Amino acid sequence: MSVNGIIRWKDMDQTSARKTEAAEPRPVVLRQEIGEVLRSIRQRQGRTLREVSHSARVSLGYLSEVERGQKEASSELLASICAALDIPVSAMLREVADHIAELEGNFAPDTVPAELHEEFGSSFAGTVQAS
C-alpha cells in the first residue's frame, strides 16, 4: 500500500514475495511429460488416438488420459503404446528426459530434435560420432 507515493516496508516484502513465487518453475510431473511426448509422437506420425489405441490394445479413453497426463501408465502399457507407435521405449524416454531438462533449464540434448530431423531428414544421421 502506498500513501502519498510512499510504499510501506511491509507491502514491499509482500510484493517481492509474490514475484519470487511467480518466478518459481512449475514442478515436473513425469506422467504429464510422458503423455505430452506420446501425443507429440502420435501427431507427428499423423495417427489418430483410435488407430494407436487399437494397435496398442488399450481403450481409447485410457490412452487419451495417459496422453493428457491424467493416468500413470505402467511400464508394460508404455511398451505397448511405443510398439504401436513403432518407436523404442528408450527413444520415447530420451525425448521425455530432454523435455524435462529443458523445463529445468539444463537443456543439452544428445539427440537430434524432431523438428531438425523432419526438416533435414537423414542427412543428420551419422554426422556426429562418439569418441
From TrEMBL:
Q: Which residues form the HTH cro/C1-type domain?
A: 38-92
- Offer an example of a GO molecular function term for this protein: DNA binding
InterPro entries (alphabetical): Cro/C1-type_HTH, Lambda_DNA-bd_dom_sf
A Pfam match is: HTH_3
Q: Which CDD domains is this protein grouped with? A: HTH_XRE (cd00093)
List the SUPFAM superfamilies: lambda repressor-like DNA-binding domains
Q: Return the protein name.
A: HTH cro/C1-type domain-containing protein
Species in which this protein is naturally found: Kocuria palustris PEL
